[in-house]
Design goal:
alpha+beta; single chain; globular; 3 helices
């Protein structure tokens, strides 16, 4: 039984216009299930989806939230390759290395 006064809760909002860094992210998907999942959704109002001749899909969009976007990318695991920016690619690689160590792969 919880007695919490929600009327005292002050809503916190992030003013995205105040965030200075905007990242243009390009992701490559080769897994058919991931391609269908990504192609069927709107991830950003400025997104661009390209279906390549080799069957892969490129998703390009802008984001102002570095860690939220990196988390989103990590959720696709090995089904995604970060094409750009290099900072996302490097942080993803480091996360995968740490994960491999946790599971005794390396």
């Amino acid at each position: 039984d919880y007695d919490y006064d929600f009327s005292s809760y002050e809503e916190v909002k992030v003013d995205l216009d105040s965030v200075k860094d905007v990242y243009e992210i390009t992701l490559k998907f080769t897994d058919p299930y991931a391609i269908t999942y990504v192609a069927d959704r709107e991830w950003s109002t400025d997104q661009k989806i390209t279906l390549n001749e080799d069957g892969s899909l490129l998703l390009t969009f802008k984001s102002r939230s570095y860690y939220e976007t990196l988390s989103f990318i990590c959720s696709f695991g090995s089904s995604v390759e970060i094409i750009s920016p290099e900072s996302f690619r490097e942080d993803f690689r480091k996360d995968m290395e740490r994960l491999a160590k946790v599971y005794g792969i390396i």
